[in-house]
Design goal:
Number of strands: 11
Largest sheet: 5 strands, antiparallel
Pathway: Protein modification; protein ubiquitination
Pfam families: BACK_BPM_SPOP, BTB, MATH_2
Family: Belongs to the Tdpoz family.
Strand content: 25-35%
Structural class: alpha+beta
Protein name: BTB domain-containing protein
Number of helices: 14
Length: about 350
Amino acid sequence: MPSSPSDVLVTNAGRSSASTISTDMETGSHELTVSGYSGSIGLMGVGHHVPSIQRRRAQLVHPIYYPDGGSEESADWISVYLQLGNQVSDGNVIAQIRFSLLEQMGEPVPSYTVTSDKKDLSAITTHSWGWPKFIKRKELEESPHIEGDSFRISCHVTVFKIRVEETPVQFPATAPSTDLHRNLGDLLESKVGADVKLRVGQETFWAHRCVLAARSPVFKAELFGWMQEKKTAEVRIVDMEPRAFGAMLHFIYTDSLPEIDEGDRRVMAQHLLVMADRYRLERLNMICEDMLRNYIDTTTVATTLALAEQHGCRHLKERCLNFFRNPGNTMAVMATDGFEHLMSSFPSLVKDLLSKVAP
């Protein structure tokens, strides 16, 4: 006998469900450097791209370069296309790409920057998304953006993944977000259970051996190895600025930096970079590199380059070297005290640098 409407209501009573539609955004970029440009013209032929480099893992984005154009209609042009990796090939995925010719300083050239509309990736066939007429070869060859028979193109992709999830509601509340960083920060501030005293200049900091050892292999060796610090409750730390050391302790406990005044950010980042290298705090090192990249000008680039060279900061060093590619910048920097320090500390680096920017 068929159930009545009231039977259905009673059968489903007490049940509830919930669904969520969310959009995740991923970004990826790839910088392509073409060296020996003149030698590649006519080598591949129309419709043939330079073979892609083989990679061990699927990449989010990889540009394809046609030196002789992607078709007969674009034979006088350079064509660029996008090859998508496996990471963005499934599901409801919308993407948008941007290609840019880069100037010598590494910044996009607005007149040679193209951005696509947002597209559903399921409707895109292999190698079909891009610009057959990205830039005329004659225009490129006459532009200041090709130097030493070399130029650079950046490809940036933004991917939007749409997810729909439906799950039964079993509990009225969800777990709150983690508060571990706040708890450890309170532990540092309260000094409860602190078992090691760190003497920096005229200031004293109390901390917990286990926390320091868990975050820094250097502290681990000093506090739990066969070193003198294992046998004493006080550790003296030399050549460190107390306020910067306190900021590093805050990072060790909370994985974040305290509030820093804008006027102090560059100097504080320099001190913290030295400490991050000394105590092998890789994430702090990367944060400081990123901070210092925003403070590169004619008055700071020499000291920043010396710091990057001394502490092995490859990305920060490259940013400084790109600044020197402009001859006008180089002449202004050479008049600063920081450049004299750079010459006395790293003469071979300066010699190599000047040889690359000399007319």
